[in-house]
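In response to reviewer comment 3 from the previous cycle, which asked for concrete evidence that the modeling workflow produces usable outputs, we include below a single protein chain processed end to end. The sequence was submitted unchanged, and the resulting structure tokens are shown without manual editing.
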Amino acid sequence: METEVAVAAGQTLGGEFSLLSLFMSAGLVVKGVMAILVIASIWSWAVIIDKSLLFGKLKSKSARFEDAFWSGRPLDELHRKLGDKGDHPMARVFSAGMSEWSRAKDIGRAEGLVAGARERIDKVMNVAVARELETAERNLGVLATIGSAAPFVGLLGTVWGIMTAFQAIAATKDTNLAVVAPGIAEALFATALGLVAAIPAVVGYNRYSAALNSYAVRLQGFADEFSAILSRQLDERSR
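The workflow returned the following structure tokens.
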């Protein structure tokens, strides 16, 4: 008896419980939900791969730049080599500070002018840090949104699939598994797709949020140290 029921259910779904047959046998609403979840999953993986490459590059480039910065070579020489636009956030923060320092270093010896130059350098670098962190943070909100919304979108497909199963029972007045299996299978498949989309998004968001916070501390620390170095040089020039 159980074998006959399974065969009947398989015939209802096009011969087998494959993922493609589940999708093809689903109603328009459930198909739409599945399509949205597949697109969301692909989008989240694209963001995850992009952030993985981004933070890997930031880590390696920042390490090389810090080695050059603390090597003892003149800062003006390093600035000329990098130009006004570096290829990573730490270099761009450095260039922003050096550009402002270059405009301020010929200021007269008045204490007020030196203090004003110090404040401008701090503000310029803080703005540069905030801008770079905002760029690095871009699309992390996508992961947060997918991670929180995908299970509920999958739940919509689940509810609709179960409604389809009950409608089949009402139409045929038969509670045979072959009647209710298609709707239940669609419902479970939609739930699975919701989890497939949500879990990587949540893991990716947590991982790269932590990486962003770690890099923010590193970048702000560099900006503070560099500001202190330029401040000392301004003090020496004002004497």
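Residues 35 and 53 are 27 Å apart (CA to CA). We consider this sufficient to address the reviewer's concern, and the full set will be provided in the supplementary archive.
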